[in-house]
Amino acid sequence: MARDVLLESVPDLRADLDRESMAAADVRTEEMLVNMGPQHPSTHGVLRLVLRTDGELVLDAVPHIGYLHRCAEKIGENLAPYQFIPKTDRLDYLAAMNNNHVFSLAVERLAGVEVPERARYIRIIMAELNRIASHLVSFGTYGLDMGAFTPFLYAFREREMILDLFEAACGARLTYSYITIGGVTHDLPDGFVERCREFLDYFEPKIDEYNRLLSYNQIFIKRTGCVGVIRPDEAIAWGLTGVCLRASGVRWDLRRCLPYEIYDRFEFEVPVGLPPGGVPPVPAGVPAPKVPAGTCVGDCWNRYFLRMIEMYWSVAIVRQALDGLPAGDYRSKVPRNLKLPEGEVYFEGENPRGQLGFLIVGDGSPIPYRVKARGPSFCNLSIARRICRNCLLADIPAIIGSIDVVMGEVDR
Amino acid sequence: MFEAFVFYLLATVAVGSAVAIVLAKDIVRAAVWLLGTLGAVAGLYFLLAAYFLGAVQLIVYVGGTLVLIIFGVMLTGRSPWARQRPSRWEVLAAAVTCSLLFGTVVGEMMGAGWAGSARPTTKGQTVAELGRELLTTYLVPFEAVSVLLLVVMIGAAYLARVERR
Amino acid sequence: MQAIRGEDILKPRWDPALRSRALRAVCRGCLGALAGAAAGAAVARLGLRGHPVAVLLLVVVPLGLAALAAVAGGLIVLAGPIGRALRRFAAPVFWGAVIASVLLIWGVAELMGFVGELARVDPVPEAVTAFGGPLTTGELRESLRGPGRFVLLSGLLWPLQFGVVRDLVVVAGVVAFVSVFAMFAIWWERKVSARIQSRLGPMRVGGWHGWAQSLADGIKLLGKEDLIPAGADRPLFCLAPYLAFVPALCGFIALPFGAYWVFRNLDVGLVFVLAMVGVEVIGVILGGWASNNKWSLYGAMREACQMVSYEIPMGMALLVVVTAAGTLNLTEIGELQKSGWASWLAFRNPFTFVACFLYFVAALASCKRAPFDLPEAESELVAGFMTEYSGFRWCLFFFAEYAAMFIVSGLATTLFLGAWYSPLPVRWGAVLAEGGLLSRAVHGLVFCGPLWFVAKCILLIYVQMWIRWTLPRVRIDQVLYACVQVLLPLTMLALLGQSLWELLVPRGSALGLAANAITSAIGAVLVMGAVGAAAYGRMNRRRLVGSLAVEHLPGA
Predict the structure, then answer these.
(1) Looking at the structure, do residues A196 and A55 belong to the same domain, yes or no?
(2) Residue A354's closest CA among A30, A88, A87, A134?
């Protein structure tokens, strides 16, 4: 079901979209209609952008989505919650643990299920490790879009280690279905804590290495600094969440502002976008990063850089969780046909890409009446048309990459 | 004998490409035939042992002027296959003018007394001598041309400036 | 379950029927060639009085074909054992082949030089008729030193006295060198990029570090479908790769590999090479245009802008050296740098030193290498102007890129980095230069020779690859900004400074010598620093990369 994201009526653009006039509008000097995607190396999935360009200048960029629609929400009306967990894996497939987490919390809130302490800690560990993995993919592919091929390989080298940890815990490397209603499906294997600590000690210095390799590179700053600037009021008006919101200076993180699970027991800072010269907060013992000149609050560079700083804090949270990991059950007894009481709950959690929300309407039976997923990338992508105006063609991958969309949760 | 063979080959290419430029219906193809002509003329320069001139012909004409021509053609053609259809009167007027020109040039060429030998007249460092001549005998034209180039560059930069909205 | 080994899957399948058919064909060919050689010998002796051309065509060629057939038959029969031996001794075989080809090139050059000196004819002799040339085989046989007084050898050497034949041999050698070098450079780039990216690169094909990977890729590309997009301009589409590749080859006409290792020692060699590099632009633009693809068009337009703009700082940076050297002749510029490290033109004075780096940056942009590789920007324009090209045509574009990289590095080496001379002054080895084959070989390895030239070019290409895999891509407006507002003023300042220096500072004065010493010291420090940093990184891998990666990943 392809939906055009046309917010204003643009009659000439509509007329240009039919085939004959597109062929005739080919090589005029004035404007060129260029199609980017759905298969394109840098649109981060099956996203189609129809650009109206004047040489290198982009006059308009219309995203067309729906190529990855798999009727997840409709399927949710036919599956019990524990059966729906694997579907949530595939929404934002790079942060599957977080998706499982948010959905499980929503169902637990609706059905009043208690989760043991150990399970809560394990869930936080997995969610934060997946946040690191997701931010690594974002960092690597962003470098790749900008033409720096090497950080991609380094990011995936580290990510492989995280995926090894996940594989040890649940057997899967991408779509885990590990966090489920009432806890997690299996307990942590032997040696997991030591391996995890070893990985964190290995990984924490790497973030500074990536900063020195890519973030402070003058060419990279010139490509992404002051490009695609989003003002804070715009960010709030367009419904941006996550890093896109925080990079514009709005200090809003659900883990801090509306803490869920046991996030209130951990010490971590929420970094926001800073002007040049600012020093974002980092854990102790880590070289302090500085925002270089040539950037501004709310630009692509800040959106990218906040993900690097968040990786530091995720490492800190995982360390604290590993230190405080209690013994006990890893899952509470939840009946197979857990009856969802009548009523609805809407729960949002802080995913790597923004706030993922689930609306679950129960009607007394094990199968929910309605499941709605609010994908953060869907709302974040909506601003693409607004900020891709009057930028150069080479800025389009910079902007789309900095918003960090995953089409799985845009299309669901 | 070898020289004669190469000369006739290059001359055929040059003239043939020039004819093809005129007869080509597609502008981009015409520009490519221009490449043939300019390249063959550069080859003729090399055959005459005027290596510097041949290399400069390649740098300036082929690497610069022709690139810009192709650029302009690519950007302004209505469609990739721009067709030119001159009217009958245009063809007649062009034919008359070109025949007159051709007759004049050929007549002059036949009547001129060409020197006999085909050997190069200077020995050694032709580039050094060129440089010396440019800066002593032909200094005024040299400076005039550089001022002209400067004016052209400033004009181009002004015309291509980015409009501040 | 049995482990599947890669070798099992990659072994060629010889079914016996195919093998016997091939053997029978080879045997028939061999016998036929031998019979032809015998008949030809009879005809040549009796009918044409043993004239060298007749002997060559009627006897030597069929004998050579028979030898080839025999070798092919031997390979077919012994395919199994040979394959096993090759796989076991892949590294020595590979390095042996490399050394053998170097020796072969050297041997052919020596022979050509020997015969050329002997004949002492013009490059294009006036009377090239079929019968009777300036030298007879008898005369050749007399002049061959040592035990080489065979008829066959003098028959083989007889054609070499004609300049045309020598030119053809050199052209064939240059084309072979460019092709082999391009294949090597592709493999080298994959290895370098892999090591920078904490991987290994090709490891399988050919056994030792995948040295035959480019060969395998070339064979695969040759077998690909020749796809021309609908609506593309067919003649231009087919012409464009050649318009890009042939100028790159022609650049080698004037590029000297050694004191006498140049095809044509043009007085304006530098300008000629620059001209050839400039003609390549046309092939790229036409390739983009003829593809009937908007993305290719974008790539072609960007590329035209970039290459044409960067020719100016490139030429001006080279002009800095020309004012220092006083000649455009590449061989003479090389000859100026024979007195060791300090005599290299990059270290003559601070302006040439700066010009070296400016030229290198401009050359990066001219070769469309990252950080200036917008025309082939993979993540934006799929493959830029090469999007619609596949198979052999794409191969030609790729070869043209690596050939251009070599030419540009060759210019940098010749003009800045001592051409074919080693950092040691040549006069230290003057004794070796006069001796026999072995001492001349040592002289070539240690003091001056084409190997040094190629090695320096490979080093510069390594630096180009290193930069490509480290830095992100620059946007087109920033590329042009860098050209016009940064590089061009800097090169103009360097040129101005160099001209003033040449006018005001006499050669051999204290200031000149001091500047020479300081810049050569800085250069030496830079080179040692780079090598030292690499060694430090290699030795402290475990601490720098992290033991977790080093232990579990072979390439980390």
Answers:
(1) no
(2) A134
Evaluate whether residue A245 is within a structural domain: yes
For the record, the structure tokens of B81 come out as 């296959």
Tokens of residue C128, six digits: 């090239």
A272 has pLDDT over 50: yes
C281 near B CB under 8 A: yes
Beta bridge partners of residue A373, listed in sequence order: A358
Q: Are strands A57-65 and A3-4 parallel, antiparallel or unpaired?
A: antiparallel
Give how far Cα A174 sits from Cα of A34, A160, A199, A401, Å.
Answer: 34, 11, 19, 21
Residues A321 and A402 both lie in one domain: yes
CB neighbour class for A129 (10 Å; exposed up to 12, middle 13-18, buried from 19): buried
Does residue C144 surpass a pLDDT of 70? no
Instruction: State the pLDDT at residue C129.
Output: 37
The more confidently predicted of residues C426 and C5 is C426
Give the CA count within 13 Å in the CB-facing half-sphere of C454.
Answer: 16
A23 shares its domain with A87: no
Task: Measure the CA–CA gap between B1 and A334, rounded to whole angstroms.
Answer: 100
Residue A199: inside a domain:
yes
Choose from A31, A149, A400 for mutation: most chain C CBs within 10 A: A149
Residues of chain B with pLDDT > 90, as a percent, come to: 43
Contacts of A397 in chain C (CB under 8 A): 379-380
Token pair of A339, please?
């009856």
- Cross-chain residue pair B75–A26, CB shorter than 8 Å: no
Model confidence at A27, in pLDDT bands (50, 70, 90)? very low
The number of CA neighbours under 13 Å toward the Cβ of C86 is: 18
Q: What's the rounded Cα separation, in Å, for the pair B112 and B115?
A: 10
Q: Do A393 and C298 lie within an 8 Å CB cutoff?
A: yes
Question: If you compute the radius of gyration of chain B from its CA atoms, what whole number of angstroms results?
Answer: 20
Give A323: exposed, middle or buried? Use CB within 10 Å, 0-12, 13-18, 19+: exposed
Is the C-alpha dihedral spanning B39, B44, B47, B50 positive or negative?
negative
> Residue C4's pLDDT is what?
57
Say if residues C315 and C379 touch (Cβ distance below 8 Å): no
For C331-355, letters b (16+ CB in 10 Å) and e give bebbbbbbebbbbbbbbbbbbbbbb
CA distance linking residue C246 with residue C283, whole number of Å: 9
A108 lies in some domain: yes
Window B:44-83, CB contacts with A under 8 Å: 74-80
How far is Cα B158 from Cα B162, in angstroms, rounded to an integer?
A: 9
Note whether A26 contacts B76, CB cutoff 8 Å.
Answer: no
Chain-centroid distance of CA A7 in Å reads: 24
Domains of chain A: total: 2
Q: Tell me: do A121 and A212 sit in the same domain.
A: yes
Is A276 contained in some domain? yes
For an interface test with A, which of B71, B73, B74, B79 has the most A Cβ atoms less than 10 Å from its Cβ?
Answer: B79
Local structure of A27: helix, strand or coil: coil
Rounded distance between C-alpha atoms, residue C492 and residue C504, angstroms: 18
Task: Locate the domains of chain C by residue range.
Answer: 12-88, 243-536
**Cβ–Cβ below 8 Å for A26 and B79:** yes
Q: Report the alpha-carbon distance of residue A242 to residue A250 in Å, rounded.
A: 10
Tell me the residue range of the domain where A337 lies. Answer: 79-411
Structure tokens at C365: 């942009």
Residues C433-462, mean pLDDT to the nearest whole number: 84
- The C-alpha of C304 sits at a distance from chain A's nearest C-alpha, in angstroms, of 14
CA angle (A305 as vertex; A300, A306 as ends), nearest 5: 105
Residues C93-125 have pLDDT tens digits of 888 888 888 888 888 888 887 777 766 644 444
What is the pTM for the complete model shown?
A: 0.85
- Which residue type occupies C39? A
Amino acid, res. C126: E
